[in-house]
Amino acid sequence: LTLRCAANLTMTRFPCREGRSVDDGVPPAYETGSMTSLRRNAINPDDECQLPDTKRHKKTSVAGRLYEASELSETALSHRVQRTVQPSKCSHCDTLSILYTVQCTDCGAQWHKTCFPKTTQTCGQPARPSDRRMSIFGVSLQGHLEMQQRNVPLIIESTIHELQKRGMRVKGIYRTCGVKSKIEEICEAFERCSGDQSVDLEHVHPMNLASVVKLYLRKLPEPLMTYELYNEWIRFGVKCCDEPDEALLDELKRLTRRLPICNYETLKHLMLHLNRVTWFHESNLMGPSNLSTVVTPSLVWQPSTSADHTAAIIDAQHANRTLQCLITNAFTIFGVDRTKDWDEFFSKYALEEPPKVRFCS
């Protein structure tokens, strides 16, 4: 569906304290689609935004709800555009476009939403020479790790390390939205760095770091927990309970070991980190249930060929239970000594120890 066909649709904007969020648009509380609300970040109660009393304006049919006709250059008017979720290099500014990208359905050129009105590229005209290959976002996990010669993506390791340094007590971490422009800057920095070259994250807000983690995982061509095992994760969620017995945990352990090695190592790194986040749940309000709700859509999803939306909603609930079990029992599932990890964590990071958490193992 091109944006031309969506001419009568409008979007309500919500001005928030920190600027625009990762998922610019309607907060989950106002959404009508259950699957949509699951895939979006929730907004913390302290950051709720009121619906503004604004008059709706009819949009031009050239670019649907995205632009007014007066905003577009003559060359922009030659294109028929639609939104795309595929990470790409902007044809205008040649930087990463990952959160709000439009693509011409005729010539295939892609732009940031804000760059498109200024484009000087006529439809059908070749883009200016550039290395348009992506090195991180939208690239298969295995291919990316083979290129970097790593077991876990650098972007995941770096952001998690910085979060563990100074983001573990932030209220609503992983749940509250980051700022879209800042997140895209971080992603662009990682896209441009080579090998083990570090990206300075020292002054990045923890909410933005957590959003980068989820965004990277959500932009993988295949979910981290793979299409192949999708039905297995759902079946496990059906029979999973709040306190699974040893047999169920052994089954989950066997399931995780069926993942490709790069997926397994990345999932292990992430689940151990999320378990540590729950150590501070009295401060950050993020226990295993809350965390699984916001990270599941970035880790498990159906192939796009599926059209049964009702089944997808039910599956999402079961997948959420599976992730909750993985987070709660991460040290058991991945064979890591929790006591040793606790001691090493607080030796490495200058944080005050919270009371040891009962529900995490």
UniProtKB/TrEMBL annotation:
Any single Pfam family the record assigns to this protein: RhoGAP
Domain Rho-GAP, residue spans: 139-334
Database matches in SMART domains: C1, RhoGAP
Source superkingdom: Eukaryota
UniProt keywords, alphabetically: GTPase activation, Metal-binding, Zinc
UniProt xrefs under InterPro entries: C1-like_sf, PKC_DAG/PE, Rho_GTPase_activation_prot, RhoGAP, RhoGAP_dom
Molecular function per GO: GTPase activator activity; metal ion binding
An annotated GO BP: signal transduction
Domain Phorbol-ester/DAG-type, residue spans: 78-123
Record-linked SUPFAM superfamilies: Cysteine-rich domain, GTPase activation domain, GAP
PROSITE patterns: RHOGAP, ZF_DAG_PE_2
Gene3D superfamilies membership: 3.30.60.20, Rho GTPase activation protein
Protein's recorded name: RhoGAP domain protein
